[in-house]
Amino acid sequence: MSPKTLYDKIWDAHLVHEAEDGTSLLYIDRHLVHEVTSPQAFEGLRMAGRKVRKPENTIAVPDHNVPTTPDRVNGIKNEESRIQVEALDKNAKEFGINYYPVNDVRQGIVHIVGPEQGWTLPGMTVVCGDSHTATHGAFGALAHGIGTSEVEHVLATQTLIQSKSKNMKVEITGQLRPGVTAKDITLSVIGETGTAGGTGYVIEYCGEAIRSLSMEGRMTVCNMAIEGGARAGLIAPDETTFEYIKGRPHAPKGAQWEAAMAWWKTLYSDDDAHWDKVITIKGEDIAPVVTWGTSPEDVLPITDAVPNPSDFDGGKVDAAKRALEYMGLEAGQKLSDIEIDTVFIGSCTNGRIEDLRAAAEILKGKKIKEGLRAMIVPGSGLVRAQAEDEGLADIFKDAGFEWRLAGCSMCLAMNPDQLSPGERCAATSNRNFEGRQGRGGRTHLMSPQMAAAAAITGKLTDVREMM
Amino acid sequence: MEKFEKITGVAAPMPLINVDTDMIIPKQFLKTIKRSGLGKNLFDEMRFDDDGNEIPDFVLNKSQYRDAEILVAGDNFGCGSSREHAPWAIKDFGIRCVIAPSFADIFYNNCFKNGILPIALPQEQVDMLMKDAEKGSNARMIVDLEAQTVTTSDGEIVSFEIDAFKKHCLLEGLDDIALTLEKGPAIDSFEQQADAARPWV
Q1: Interstrand relation of A24-27 and A15-18 (parallel, antiparallel or unpaired)
Q2: Mean of the pLDDT values across residues A306-325?
Q3: Threshold 0.90, pTM exceeds
Q4: Alpha carbon of A22: minimum distance to chain B alpha carbons (Å)
Q5: A426: which of A210, A327, A454, B157 fits an S-S bond (Cβ 3.0–4.6 Å)?
Q6: pLDDT tens, position by position, A68-97
Q7: CB-CB under 8 Å, A123 with B186
Q8: What is the ipTM of this complex?
């Protein structure tokens, strides 16, 4: 048998049909659904008189729109948001799919809930009408975002029409230095490849630095594969993966666990597998980074300065000029001199328990800079409960952070958590696009540790100075 | 789905790289539960100021490009979220074809589900088409999917590549779901075999 990559193996195990031109029908094991990209798909099913083919493998949770303030238990005030969430309530019931409603303690960001509940398992195909579905690749599952038409297609047929991507290997060798995190890895990779560098590829992240990451860290890395343009990111499952999964509500048990493990242990790229592109980065060369512009590729070590647009080539010259103007920055300005107004810790990138622990470590016994707005939005109700049990919530509240309920919140600002024009935010989310966190809002992406450090000083800060 | 065969229309130049889905349709317009009516909010934050007035410099606000049916843009068009609201807004505005050096994967796929033709061409050819688009409303481009060509206002012809299956579906306006349901027996037998091999799924 010819050697295969992990992506090849998962692909082959899910191939229902392949046409002569390579157009393939791929079977989907898990379909995650949220309120924003699904109403039109359910409506389409209804119009055509179709059912959900595998409701037991379809999981829905409202996350994008939901307020994160405690008063949400009394209902969602914004009418349009409320209608979308109510539509999901209704569709979940009508079509008989698994559902975690807004006031269920298990509710949270769909990409945090899926793994937390044991829905996401190695070797699966996982899709969701959300680009950050890439997150689930951390388990060695082929996971990617789809549009609403494809959501409808998967609901109706449990398959997706696909053409195969190319294989890219991103190897992070050695170990990370203190203060450097999974977020710095994933941002640094995008800095290296550019936001279109992964287009047409599925990335497999490997190397010692990746192996040393927890599942939370691996999810952070894979989450942003889409920001590098890749269809999906993957990390081969290992003992860390199996340990994380074992005992979760929907993980296999008993003899099924043994059978699953036997297959999961075959899920790795063969030594002589073919890679269409290989990128190698030394773990010890990665620094704590921040973004300065309006694309996730606009990333630099915190010790650097804002670049000059003339340092770039082609379309990037104008893009950098536009970015500096939008961000209100001058070329040559030290990144660590940039003052911020707001700190947002949360999102499917960095809203898991380990992220909160890392932020709490920096914030313990400290206060946030006076006048700063700072919020922590746990990725799920269970993450929130655990953080409260571990005493992290008290650390955040004592420091001056708002302690919110779970949701996507200010990552995409569909709910009331938004930036005002010109407001500058240190954010642990995944996109620094113009207007992403609110019209005119200015986003600097970074790790939870770095965001916590920025909260204390009121400016972008090298967290290593606080360790 | 609406067929795409051949269009002759004005092309709007948008020489910007990394045009993301938050630019194409900002999140406040994703609260709809319909597919229609998003054209008025296409590029909302670039097109209108805080008070809802048109920003005159923005390309689609210029008189010669208000009825554009083709958009010529920079690298990595449509990057960011999976929101199909982006192609819905583009189509609802009246744009049927986007030409760029490269597209983000999910956006690219979403276009084909909505009768929009995304054309990826080498940078030099996009540059040439961008110049042609800059001539305004007197310069009409022809996009012919069957022939896989773009013809400039000067009659210069550029050929493009496209996946044969996607081309077929777009030319015929085919519904993916109906096509896949024809493969029902193959899905059934796959499921049986997968249930036996991986019962824990």
Answers
A1: antiparallel
A2: 97
A3: yes
A4: 9
A5: A454
A6: 999 999 999 999 999 999 999 999 999 999
A7: no
A8: 0.95
Q: What is the DSSP string of B36-52?
A: SS-GGGTTHHHHB-TTS
What's the full length of chain B, in residues?
201
B180 backbone φψ class: left, alpha, beta (φ>0; ψ -120 to 50): alpha
Displacement of CA B75 from its chain's centroid (Å): 14
Quote the CA–CA distance of A48 and A387 in Å, as a whole number.
45
The single residue listed with the structure tokens 């909505």 is B114
* C-alpha–C-alpha distance, residues A17 and A14, integer Å: 9
Q: Given an 8 Å threshold on Cβ–Cβ distance, is B176 in contact with A149?
A: yes
How many Å from the N-terminal Cα to the C-terminal Cα in chain B?
A: 34
For B112, nearest residue in chain A (alpha carbons): A149
Instruction: List chain A residues with CB under 8 Å of B33.
Output: 39-40, 43, 83-84, 87
Structure-block tokens of residue B73: 């843009």
Distance CA(B112)–CA(B183), nearest Å, equals 20
- Shortest Cα distance, chain A CAs vs residue B2, angstroms: 14
- How many residue contacts between A and B have a Cβ separation below 8 Å? 187
Residue A226 is encoded by which pair of tokens?
Answer: 């889409």
How many other CB atoms are there within 10 angstroms of residue A259's CB atom? 15
CB-closest option in A153, A163, A322 to B176:
A153
Determine how β-strand A373-376 pairs with β-strand A342-345.
Answer: parallel
Residue A1 has pLDDT above 80, yes or no: no
Closest Cα of chain A to B163: distance in Å? 9
DSSP codes joined into one string, B121-155: --HHHHHHHHHHHTT-TT-EEEEETTTTEEE-TT-
Long-range CB contact pairs, B37-45, < 8 A, 24+: B37/B92, B38/B85, B38/B88, B38/B89, B38/B92, B39/B89, B39/B90, B39/B91, B39/B92, B39/B93, B39/B94, B40/B92, B40/B93, B41/B89, B42/B89, B42/B90, B42/B92, B42/B93, B45/A434, B45/A435, B45/A439
Cβ of B23 and A434 within 8 Å?
yes
